[in-house]
Amino acid sequence: MPRLSRRSSLRMSWGGNQRDMKPNDFSGARVLVTGGAGFIGSALVWGLNRRGCDNVVVCDILGTAEKWRNLTPLRFADYVEAADLLPRLQNGSLGKFDLVLHMGACSATTEKDATYLIKNNFEFTKDLAQWALANKVRFAYASSAATYGDGSAGMEDDESKLDSLRPLNMYGYSKHLFDLHAKRAGFLNKMVGLKFFNVFGPNEDHKGDMRSLVHKSFAQVQEKGVIQLFKSYREEYRDGEQKRDFLYVKDCVAMTLHLAATPRANGLFNIGSGQARTWIDLSNAVFAALKKKSVIKFIEMPEIIREKYQYFTQANLLRLRGTGYAAPVTSLENAVHDYVRKYLVPDKRLDPSGE
User: Fold this and answer.
1) Is residue 349 within 8 Å of 72, Cβ to Cβ?
2) Which H or E run contains 321?
3) 161 labelled catalytic
4) Which residue in the list 207, 216, 231, 342 is annotated as catalytic?
5) Rounded CA gap, 321 and 317, in Å?
6) Mean pLDDT over each residue of the chain, to the nearest integer
7) HSE, side-chain direction, 13 A CA sphere, residue 208
8) How far apart are CA 268 and CA 93, in angstroms?
9) Catalytic residue among 141, 171, 248, 339
10) pLDDT (tens digit, 9 = 90+) per residue, 34-71?
């Protein structure tokens, strides 16, 4: 493999050889993907496959969920259950890696078991990060836009502002805790933290209530011809005009793999579209993809989430763009059309042999 500039590729030692990783070519890399059967994790395996990398070890907790179906079209070298991962990394039985994409976590924003979230989202991430740093393995982990809370402290991926953030739920706080830990331990200049905004797309079927409104709406339209949206409880927002930054999972994969393969890209990065759109916009896009007339009904928001609801999110992408990521972001309408027509209607998952 020809030698590449440090600006364009990541060169790492593995098994005595020099391995190159470029955003569009991971053919020489050995990669560990935690949460690899889940939504974003399996999409990253798909993205790696399409960039020439089959030497992937997938880690997850399959349990009784149907997320194993996400793995069936993908190419990977091995699978390990999460409980076995750290012991096997520490004793060397899994071999060496060039890159860890740590997507494994409880992503339920309604989860109330704080002890579970601390162990799963914070302690496990600390242990895995420490192993990666000790073994000089590139480490990219999933943070979340939930760490920004109500947005009053801004939504800039600036580590100097971390202490001012106040997440609205325990999930967001568990992610925020690791961001703080990484900052205070001096890790953020050696790894990548990914603050995912509202990501949607193929392979989210198993997520239950945490799946995107696109997925939920598709089923609602098919069954009843109507999409239900939450009413607003703030005067400055009319019903359905609460705004979120929606990002197609294919763009999320491209952004993540770009950062993973860019050595100078360290610290926290917003992963979003950079544009806030309303829930009505999203609903209308679903109806348009199905070639149906928009029919929207507004319903009461459950009291359990009213005080913890984000009314506005929008990613500032200046830091991401500053690393050289120049690809355009898929528009909401085009992304929803692609998702609905190519995946939801035919009930397909991401397949590296397809698109």
Assistant:
1) yes
2) helix 318-322
3) no
4) 207
5) 6
6) 91
7) 9
8) 31
9) 171
10) 999 999 999 999 999 999 999 999 999 998 889 999 99
Amino acid at 194: L
What is d(CA 333, CA 345) in angstroms, rounded to the nearest whole number? Answer: 16
Q: Is 237 a catalytic residue?
A: no
What domains lie within the chain, and their CATH numbers? 10-204+245-273+310-329 (3.40.50.720)
The letter for the amino acid at 217 is S
**Which residue has 């060397």 as its token pair?**
92
Question: Do residues 138 and 116 make contact, with C-beta atoms less than 8 angstroms apart?
Answer: no
Q: DSSP strand E in 161-226: where?
A: 192-196, 198-200
Question: Measured between alpha carbons, how far is 276 from 290 in angstroms, rounded to an integer?
Answer: 23
- C-alpha 86/C-alpha 91 separation (Å) is 9
Regions of the chain short of the pLDDT cut 50: 1-18
Q: Residue 268 corresponds to which tokens in the numbers above?
A: 């926290």
Q: Which residue has the tokens 């997850």?
A: 60
Q: What is the pLDDT of residues 300-327, one digit of tens each?
A: 999 988 888 889 999 999 999 999 999 9
What's the half-sphere exposure (Cβ side, CA atoms, 13 Å) at 172?
Answer: 20
Dihedral sign (CA 301, 302, 304, 305): negative
